[in-house]
Request: fold
Amino acid sequence: MVEKFREDSLDLEEYISHNIKSSKPKGLLKCVQCGMCTSVCPAAQHSNYNPRSMVECVLEGDTAVIEDEDIWYCFYCYTCHSICPADNSPCEVNQVLRQIAVDKGIADDHLIPFLGFGDSFLNHGIGGIPENFFPEMKEDIGDDWWDFKTHLDDVRNHLGLDPVFPSEEAIVEVSTILKSCGFEDRINKIRNHHKDED
Ligand code: SF4
Ligand code: SF4
Reply:
């Protein structure tokens, strides 16, 4: 279980090193501020987000970075992770920072549009694009996509394929796992917190 970040008692860099999941925790300490991560970062090319300076803030213990809206431009492509000469992963540093922001209740606006992904896993046992994105996708991709999307079962049936959703048994299994690990509680908490703020 990951402990909550407490600004009064925990060092930001120490906390992030401890909670990084898959890259080398010591990589963060080896950052030489070369800026290669920023030079390859697609998000940095189209926003003010800067993974190198995000890492610098962490190493300097500047907790204001947790509230920096720019950290939400990262979309976890892991390019920085692959290129860093110090085995650091700005991508995963970003993930822990966002997690702290979620725990602090300051990330609702970034999370609410995506809660439908969680609902899809809970209710259908599979990820699916939430309906709130449909109008924009229809506009971007066009009517052919919409036609395909709304007749997917017919297309699969015509091709002799099983329905796209998993079996009832699999749905119950996935849902049980997500409930037991606290996933459902978490998304409900975010939703309720957002409603209370409205
Ligand atoms: S995280 Fe890696 S690539 Fe980015 S500035 Fe530090 S050492 Fe360079
Ligand atoms: S994972 Fe995030 S920080 Fe790293 S290169 Fe991709 S968008 Fe940039």
